[in-house]
Design a protein that fits this description.
With 148 residues, the chain is mainly alpha-helical. The chain has 2 domains: 1-31, no CATH class; 34-137, no CATH class. The chain has helices spanning 2-5, 11-31, 47-66, 76-90, 100-107, 118-122, 130-137, and strands at residues 37-40, 43-46. It has a two-stranded antiparallel sheet with strand order 1-2. Strand 1 and strand 2 form a beta hairpin. The longest helix has 21 residues, at 11-31.
């Protein structure tokens, strides 16, 4: 995300593009029938799954942009949805001891786990990061995700 963000001449330009894109997505989703389907990147998703995918992507990239910077966190609701998606991808909930931000960062491989972390004792080491598989699965050339 930071590499893509560096293509903009100023942070304001990135924010403006983000707002335009987000606005277009909101309008498109509002016009879509709730039981409809959306074709994207060689896959077909239900409208709710598409919205959830976009919300997770926006939330994770929002956190990416905050690394080493001060700024507002994603909305609590967006973090909660992202955590639920990660729980579903992992097939079990992330440790309850983790707040949503550390859970999302760990669940996406953006936060390293250390031996004292409650998640290590819980057994998070194996399937985390949950989105590493999903990123490959949602690209133009689908691959079979590993079985557990």
């Amino acid at each position: 995300m930071r590499v893509a963000a560096s293509a903009y001449s100023s942070p304001d330009q990135l924010v403006e593009h983000w707002q335009e894109t987000a606005g277009a997505v909101v309008r498109a989703v509002a016009a879509a029938p709730p039981d409809g389907r959306v074709a994207t990147q060689g896959h077909v998703l239900t409208v709710p799954d598409f919205v959830s995918t976009l919300l997770v992507e926006a939330t994770v990239h929002h956190l990416d942009l905050l690394v080493g910077l001060e700024g507002p966190l994603p909305a609590a609701g967006a973090l909660a949805v992202t955590r639920r998606v990660l729980d579903g991808l992992l097939g079990q909930p992330l440790p309850a001891e983790w707040d949503d931000v550390p859970a999302v960062l760990a669940g996406t491989g953006r936060r390293a786990l250390d031996p004292a972390d409650p998640g290590v004792a819980w057994g998070v080491r194996g399937p985390v990061p949950a989105l590493r598989v999903t990123r490959h699965f949602l690209c133009d050339t689908p691959v079979n995700p590993p079985t557990r």
